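Suppose a colleague, Dr. K., hands you the sequence of a protein chain of 257 amino acids and asks what its three-dimensional shape might be. Before reaching for any lab equipment, you can write down a predicted structure in token form. Begin with the sequence itself:
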Amino acid sequence: MTAILLLSGCGGDKELREDDREAAELYESARSSLSARDYGQSIILYKQLRNRFPFGRYAEQGQLDLAYAYHKAGEPENVSATVDRFIRTYPTHPNVDYAYYLRGLTYYEQNIGFLSRLFPERIASRDQSLSRQSFDGFSELLRRYPQSRYTPDARQRMVFLRNNLAAYEIAVAEYYIRRKAYIAAVSRAKYVLETYPGTPPTNDALAVLANAYERLELAELAADAKSILELNDPTHPFLTGKRRDGPGFFRRLFSFD
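The predicted structure, expressed as tokens, is then:
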């Protein structure tokens, strides 16, 4: 009986070594595809690795690599799902902070995109759901891992996202002005002042308030908004009637390349 157990143990060790070798080979193939920017093939191989060898060091790194491959392939939903699975499975992994960062970065790049970099004036007028998801992802990284090496970059991107979310609200408010929906414009402008204080679009929010109140014939409220705007930004186009010289509005928001 003892001999049988020993033989079984030896066979089991051999099987484990073989599995480990196969996992290593599959991981290297997946990583080679990823390095070659063949993201579709790398995703296939990393998923095979995850399904065939769900435990061990190759499974851990493979999950994180899979999330990165999804990121490069432009599949934010799959990035988020893979990151969530990684965090649940390996909450104490030394690179778990990167998982949080990657999720925020993926939504960020989906929102900005290559064409948006070529035509930045369109950023503020597009749907901002991805901006909010990116901001929330970076916020979680900062809350959980304030000392992470990814935190400075995440914080800088959050500044831009916050500015852009405020600019989006102004774009909507100005649309309401054009549609003569002045009360709705006032609501959007107040939201910017309350939710995004200190961002560049706050002066534009004051301009929207002054404009909308004037059209609503609320002279006192219009004068109050205008006086605050004069203190904060005396050269604002709403006050001067002239176009502002210098970098465009988006360039003032975008704090880094």
